[in-house]
Amino acid sequence: MAGHSHWAGIKHKKAANDAKRGRAWSKIAKLIMVAAKNGGGDPSSNLPLRYAIDKGKAANMPKDTIEKAIKKGTGELGGVSYEEIIYEGYAPGGIAVMVETLTDNRNRTGPEVKKLFERRGGSMGTSGCVSYMFSSKGVITVSAESVDEDELMDTALGAGAEDMQNLGEVYEITCAPSEFDGLKNAITESGIEPLSAELAMVPQNTIKVSDVSAAEKILNLVEDFEDHDDVQNVYSNFDIPDEILEKLNN
Q1: 9-74 to CATH, choices 1.10.10.200, 1.10.3470.10, 3.40.50.300, 1.10.10.10
Q2: Which segments constitute the TACO1/YebC-like second and third domain (predicted)?
């Protein structure tokens, strides 16, 4: 339906590695705390909290850990106060990058994000310098091994999906944020279990990276950001072809 992109596939593999290192639970706990603080502790009336809880369940986060994070957010338990800050900038080759963070100290996080940009040959820009290149979308990924492509496409299109891409190991389905709940429910009710389902910033257009050295710097930059404790999500508009990825893996 749309051009091939490797971003979701790369991100899925990275998320799996994060979970193995135990990094994911800490980041999701922060997300739950902020959602509960902003909208209350009832997920039935607080969509961001429900999405954060779903993310925790998908990462096999224990129920009591989720409940503790909610109580910290609502003030029932003492906890650190986090704020959401988005940093924008460029990776090598003019690739746009958005870095979503939750931090308890912006005076620490900002300089650290700037340093990571610069260490990999990029640069941090001002607020709004690249965000106009992205659109808020519901993004659902499904294992390619778990479902027939035509079956999934029929279900997705019938439930409000805008696009579906075959990324090799996963299918990536996108929709307008208003259609996200209905689409996710339709997929799960058809017996298909998504690997991930979230609201994300999706690039309106991608830039193909054909240089091996540039591709390596970009992927290293993304990995540096995702390894940072304050970073929740990294969004970018690069597209690295299979042949370049294979060279990097050899």
Answers
A1: 1.10.10.200
A2: 82-238
